[in-house]
Amino acid sequence: MNRKRLRLLFAITAVVLLIVEIMIAFYTSGWIRNYLGDVLVVIFLYALYRAVFIERPSKWFVLPSIILIIAFCVEFLQLWGICNRLGIHNRYVLILLGASFSVTDLMCYVSGIVPCFLIEYMMKKRRINDMGLFSRKKHAGGTYDHENKKPIIRASICTGEQIAGFKDLHTGAFEEVMLIRDAADLAEFKHRYGIEGDVEKVY
């Protein structure tokens, strides 16, 4: 699955979860509101981040860990009594932040973040496997057509996404090769194809 479809999938997931969370907050009670809502909220935050930002930490476990820490911080702010201390009485803000601390809520956050860890791990593993397969089958020898193609990095101003590849000098068509997340990825791209000097960045 390419990056655009993957981001669209995460965006749809985030919208669906947001609708579900709103319905849970205003139209349900009991265990659904007390537990299921807390499980889904961390998944919503994860899907929202992955839909909006193409860049993510290089280690697969970092993003879910950060989301879990944020959820824990919000919960401990409830223990501190943030709403009472700040004089917050708005119903919607109270629903968003929560009004009371619960260890069960912490367990729900952990339960919800587990699938996010699994998704990140599987995506990381698949990316490594795909890069190896891509390198062996499609770009054996690490060469490219110097006369007809030019190595460039296509960068998005909106999302910050950077894709390394080759631009056809005659048609302008762009062939994607790999996602550039940091200097190490760029160095790998240049080393793989024997590219010397700077690679032009095109917006």
Tell me the layout of helices and strands.
Blueprint: H1 3-27, H2 31-52, H3 62-80, H4 82-85, H5 91-97, H6 103-137, E1 149-155, E2 162-168, E3 174-179, H7 183-193, E4 200-202
Parallel strand pairs: 1-4
Antiparallel strand pairs: 1-2, 2-3
Helix pairs in contact: 1-2, 2-6, 3-6
Features:
203 residues; alpha+beta; 2 domains; 4-stranded mixed β-sheet; 7 helices; 61% helix; 11% strand
Report on this structure.
The chain folds into two domains: 3-136, no CATH class; 149-202. It contains seven helices and four strands; from the N terminus they run ααααααβββαβ. The protein has helices at residues 3-27, 31-52, 62-80, 82-85, 91-97, 103-137, 183-193; strands spanning 149-155, 162-168, 174-179, 200-202. Strand 2 and strand 3 (174-179) form a beta hairpin. Helix 1 (3-27) packs antiparallel against helix 2, helix 2 (31-52) runs parallel beside helix 6 (103-137) and helix 3 runs antiparallel to helix 6 (103-137). The two termini are 24 Å apart.
User: Can you count the helices?
Assistant: 7
- State the total count of DSSP E strands: 4
Which H/E pattern describes the elements? HHHHHHEEEHE
The level of helicity is 55-70%
Note the main sheet: 4 strands, mixed
The termini sit apart by: 24 Å
Structural class: alpha+beta
The total tally of domains equals 2
Summarize the structure.
This protein is an alpha+beta fold. It is built from seven helices and four strands; from the N terminus they run H-H-H-H-H-H-E-E-E-H-E.
